[in-house]
Amino acid sequence: MESLKVVNLKEKLALFHDYWAPRIVGDLNQDYIKVAKFKGEFIWHSHEEDELFFVLKGNLCIHLRDQDLHLREGEFLVIPKGVEHKPYAKEEAHVLLIEPKNTLNTGNVEEKRTLKNPQRL
Amino acid sequence: MESLKVVNLKEKLALFHDYWAPRIVGDLNQDYIKVAKFKGEFIWHSHEEDELFFVLKGNLCIHLRDQDLHLREGEFLVIPKGVEHKPYAKEEAHVLLIEPKNTLNTGNVEEKRTLKNPQRL
User: Fold this and answer.
1) Cross-chain residue pair A33–B78, CB shorter than 8 Å
2) For residue B119, what are the CA distances in angstroms to A28, B12, B28, B43?
3) For a Cys-Cys bond, which of A36, A45, A95, A108 suits A22, CB 3.0-4.6 Å?
4) Any bridge partners for residue A118, and if so which?
5) Beta-sheet strands, E only, within B29-106
6) Would you state the pLDDT for residue A3?
7) CA distance B61 to chain A (A)
8) Does the CB of A4 have a partner CB in chain B at under 8 Å?
9) Is the pLDDT of residue B2 over 60?
10) Which residues in chain B have Cβ-Cβ distances shorter than 8 Å to A6?
């Protein structure tokens, strides 16, 4: 059965080096489990569903319109559907994402980093 | 907004000490994000939806009817819906679980450790 395998996140993260391009590493009901490397500023956007950010390595800032939230390794945040957010990582951060399979990384915005078909590792 | 908070998993895990009793630490669309401490043998059971096990600390064995899968810290496994499994941890293991809100910890089996209303931390 395809999905019945143990996934090591560090091994998956060693397979790519670009930023803001989540890779699919698992399927969970209607969601994808993804990993990504973040560095620098992303864009303001929102999604039609909730999105989980779980920091595996480094530090992550999520700008919201009314506050900034800071995540360290071992911390997670769920951005509720419809809430505009802009991720920012001063240094490289490794992040686990869980979100519906039809969620685009840039949400309601289409730009050069929009990934319509994320790679599966 | 209730769900817009950063959650530190180690802090949540420090709040309880019993085994096989997952606590709710977040909401993600139709799922709960839970943490649990496992030690010893659980029971054979299955669920009607996929279930994520992500090992935060220690080692976890998931017995399946045809194989045993071993997870270390930083590794995850999705047990597909309908697949019978029995978790086992020789030493205490800390685990992140993500599964639909109506999923029971003992799945299709009701026994003394069945938790109908998991505590929210």
Assistant:
1) yes
2) 23, 12, 16, 21
3) A36
4) none
5) 31-41, 51-57, 60-64, 68-71, 75-79, 85-100
6) 58
7) 11
8) yes
9) no
10) 69-71, 75-77
Q: Cβ A71–B6 below 8 Å, yes or no?
A: yes
Q: What is the SS3 assignment for A11?
A: helix
Which tokens is B68 given? Answer: 């045993």
Dump pLDDT digits (tens) for B25-66: 999 999 999 999 999 999 999 999 999 999 999 999 999 999
- Of the candidates B81, B84, B97, the one whose C-alpha atom is nearest the C-alpha of residue B49 is B81
Least confident range of A70-79, A112-121, B45-54: A112-121
Query: Could you give the CA distance from residue B52 to residue B49 in angstroms, rounded to a whole number?
Result: 10
Any residues with CB less than 8 A from the CB of B34 and at least 6 apart, and which? Answer: B22, B23, B24, B25, B96, B97, B98, B99, B118
Domain architecture of chain A: domains with CATH: 9-100 (2.60.120.10)
Interface with chain A: mutation pick from B29, B59, B61, highest number of A CBs within 10 Å? B29
Residue with tokens 């090992």: B55
ipTM of this predicted structure: 0.92
